[in-house]
Amino acid sequence: MERTLNIISGKWKLALLCELNRRNARLSDFERKNPEASKRALTQQLGELVRDGIVHKKDFEVYPKKVEYSLTELGKELMPVIAKLGEFGEKL
């Protein structure tokens, strides 16, 4: 349980995961959805989710640079847990 909480803890991680649960996205999509978040914070937290195997980062070999993020299978398994957390929060 502690490992899971460490993986999803972070100011923007739940927002990032919920967006990726809807569709694959680029950094600019996250910036548009979360204008109060800094680019650095979003990039750092996406990197942590990639490192933990929850998010996949696809780097297209084009110019200008294009990177797309998606949930891994492990990330998809995590989404029902996050949904339950949300349901619990609504009861409070």
CATH superfamily: Winged helix-like DNA-binding domain superfamily/Winged helix DNA-binding domain
* Helix-residue proportion: 55-70%
**CATH fold-level name:** Arc Repressor Mutant, subunit A
CATH top level label: Mainly Alpha
Count of domains? 1
Q: Taking strands numbered 1, 2, ... along the chain, how are they ordered across the largest sheet? A: 1-2
What is the CA-atom radius of gyration, in angstroms? Answer: 13 Å
The major β-sheet equals: 2 strands, antiparallel
Annotation, overall tally of beta strands: 2
Binned strand content: 5-15%
Oligomeric nature of the chains: single chain
Kindly report how far apart the N and C termini lie.
21 Å
**Helix tally?**
5
Structural class by helix and strand composition: alpha+beta
Mean pLDDT: 95
Unreliable segments of 5+ consecutive residues? none
What gross morphology would you assign? globular
If classified by CATH, what would the architecture be? Orthogonal Bundle
Q: Give me the strand/helix succession.
A: HHHHEEH
